[in-house]
């Protein structure tokens, strides 16, 4: 295999499990996912636990919310797919995002099926 052949698009899962109200890493992970999509990789973002807050209207407590707001229009335009865990009493996820819900088992199977997984 030549170095040029390794540039073939891959399936990538970006798993965000940290609370965006406690650390900047979830917003940074979305930025990385956006870059991977722009590089033609088939990228899916998986939001675990409190990370779903990145896709709601309740963003006041999110660290780096100003940066998040810059990325959201591109994420919507590129139709980046998201997989979320169903959470009780979860604020409503904004309708413009491409969201599906999956059980822990479904999410684990999906991550195992990708070429690469980045976990934040």
Description:
There is one protein chain. By secondary structure, the protein is of the alpha/beta class. The protein has a domain at 1-9 and 30-102. The chain has 3 helices and 5 strands; from the N terminus they run E-H-E-H-E-E-H-E. The chain has helices spanning 25-38, 65-77, 104-113; strands at 11-16, 42-47, 81-84, 98-101, 116-119. The protein has a 5-stranded parallel sheet with strand order 4-3-2-1-5, sandwiched between helices. Helix 1 (25-38) links the parallel strand 1 and strand 2 (42-47). It is globular. The chain starts with 10 loop residues before the first strand and ends with a strand. 25% of the residues are buried.
User: Average pLDDT value?
Assistant: 91
Helix and strand content put the structural class at alpha/beta
Order of helices and strands: EHEHEEHE
Distance between the termini: 31 Å
Cross-sheet strand order for the largest sheet: 4-3-2-1-5
Q: Major sheet, described briefly?
A: 5 strands, parallel
Contiguous uncertain segments of 5+ residues = none
Share of β-strand residues: 15-25%
Number of helices: 3
- How many E-type strands? 5
Would you kindly provide a brief summary of this structure?
Helix content is 31%, strand content 20%.
Key features?
single chain; 120 residues; alpha/beta; 3 helices
